[in-house]
Amino acid sequence: MRVLTGIQPTNILHLGNYFGALKPAVELQREDELFIGIVDLHAITVPQEPAQLKKNIAFATAAYLAAGIDPKKAILFQQSRVPAHAELGWLLQTIARIGELERMTQFKDKSKVKGQNVSVGLFTYPVLMAADILLYDTQAVPVGEDQKQHLELARDLAERFNRDFGQTFVVPKPIINIASGRILALDNPEIKMSKSAPSPKNYISLMDEADVIRKKIKSAVTDSETGISVDDGRPGLKNLLSIFSLVTNGSPEDIAASYAAKGMKELKEDLAEALITHLAPLQAAINDYLSQPDELEKIVAEGSARANEIASMKISEVKVKMGLSL
Ligand code: AMP
Ligand code: TRP
Asked: Which atom of ligand 2 is nearest to the CA of 42?
């Protein structure tokens, strides 16, 4: 099956991204024909500092590779190096309707805060995302809850284009990512761990140093009940147990049982150490890639060239169908 996923190179990547996006991608590359887009054209729909954006693009690429993406198996590409994304994005804007974009809840939420002062790109962003997907005859897209509506738009646009101009696009299906959003914020277990959080205590960044990890886990919000149990009524503790389980492969229930007598303090101390141990090789591998910019450039250039080959055939087909050729 052909599967495509995209990650925005913004800010830092955190544990939620690692367990909800990077590791699942490593699984997918085994069986599926996987495309991973570092979607920098999406990132610039909100203001980015150029030097920082450049670093973030390198970092996201290094993180995928360090997590185990094999550039011989998966196609790892930088969106802005494949011109067909912006081009198809424009062509699809001519068949998308203002009304359907106005219904996008993510845009409504983001623009609520800033009113009229948001970019036009933020408004039309779901059309660009549809282009990302449709260019590659993508059959399935792993999505979290927050992206479901965008995928629905991609399906609608594909169907509309096929109806108006003849069969051209595969209509993609969602793979509902159950892990997505499953890692909760350490400082507020009512919300998911997020890189746009105002406080760094919300998340563990993939690059956090040992002492920072210890402090963040120590101050993670739990509850005042006694005992250690997996309980929906104790979301902070449950979240720590799931993270513990992800880094040690034990079940949350077994871990809870083994700390029943020891208590919260020891659980947090041991979790911090387990996390530090788990992240150390990943951090080393990320730093290793970042210290070899030429190697990173080669991988991205090759992945983008492979993506470009496929995408440029599709964009030519689209242009012919729309009458944009002689
Ligand atoms: P974002 O950081 O919101 O751009 O998310 C990028 C991807 O990381 C999402 O599509 C999810 O698959 C994953 N992700 C983000 N936050 C979490 C989280 N708190 N728990 C699990 N997965 C997450
Ligand atoms: N919109 C996605 C996000 O914010 C990123 C994205 C862009 C994407 N294009 C995509 C995801 C194509 C999947 C497929 O997380």
From this structure: 7
Q: Please give the single-letter amino acid code of residue 9.
A: P
Average pLDDT, the chain: 95
Is 192 a pocket residue for ligand 1 (Cβ < 6 Å)? yes
Tell me how far apart the alpha carbons of residues 17 and 13 are, in angstroms, rounded to a whole number.
Answer: 6
Tell me whether residue 262 is in a domain. Answer: yes
Shortest-distance ligand to the CA of residue 3: 2
Sequence letter at residue 33: E
Q: Does the pLDDT of residue 181 top 70, yes or no?
A: no
6 CA distance to ligand 1 centroid (A)? 11
Q: What are the tens digits of pLDDT across the range 66-76? A: 999 999 999 99
**Do 35 and 104 belong together in one domain?**
yes
- Give residue 281's domain range: 207-287
Q: Is residue 196 part of a domain?
A: no
Q: What is the DSSP string of 14-32?
A: BHHHIIIIIHHHHHHHHHS
Structure-model confidence comparison of residues 110 and 13, the more confident one: 13
Kindly report, residue by residue over 26-42, the tens digit of the pLDDT: 999 999 999 999 999 99
Predicted confidence at residue 179, as pLDDT, reads: 65
In DSSP terms, 6 is beta-bridged to 37
For residues 40 and 56, give the distance between their C-alpha atoms in angstroms, rounded to a whole number.
9
CA of 57 to the centre of ligand 1 (A): 17
pLDDT of 251 > 80? The answer is yes
Closest CA to 144 of 2, 6, 245, 12: 6
H helix or E strand, kind and range, residue 174: strand 173-176
User: Whose CA is closest to 302, among 65, 42, 140, 133?
Assistant: 65
Q: Which is nearest to 207 in space by CA: 24, 56, 78, 25?
A: 56
